[in-house]
Amino acid sequence: MHGISEQVLPLRRETLEDGVYRQLCDLILRGGIVPGESITVASLAEAFGVSPMPVRNALTRLSTAGALTVLSGRTIGIPKLTRERLDELLRVRLTLEPTTAAWAAERAGPRDVEGLNKSFQALFEGQQAGDTKLYLQSNYDFHFEVYRLAQSPIMLSIIESLWLQISPYFHLLRSSGNFRISNHHHEEIFRAIENNQPDRARQAMHDDISDAYEVLTGYL
Known about the structure:
This protein is mainly alpha-helical.
């Protein structure tokens, strides 16, 4: 599969299935597998340098999570996004992610803000350069740094499962100009966390998710 072998690392036998699963999750979350792209067990096994079995097991886990689906025969890809699925993801995301951002704003200290600032600045670099890959990677880094600052492993795990289902479609947001709009919300989130303002962080995260939803419904 084109490009995948350059983005994954060979794995030791004792961690094969979990390692394949974790790297595939990272690929999906960071925009490395996009809608319309097809992958096969054989191509992934070759890229990872493993036998097909751990790849099949990892893909089964991702299919169960709604992140991947069988397209045809042995070909696997991102599931089609329907309006019903998008609506449900929106409702759950708006329940969890704004609250998590508020928790982050309550708990963040100066060192936390300094770390968050790196991914925050990278978002604007990606937007200004028109670099979709950099933007999507930075978007993931920024959001999940916010969610980690909330200090809730349970919430972090749930949010990751939601992002595995929706983040591949963030590619569609570029042509709409949403990257620029979203960065306005990202700045609000960052400033709210920097100044320990949980209500402001909650509202900014809500607005970021809602605006992206409006754009994605247009594509459906």
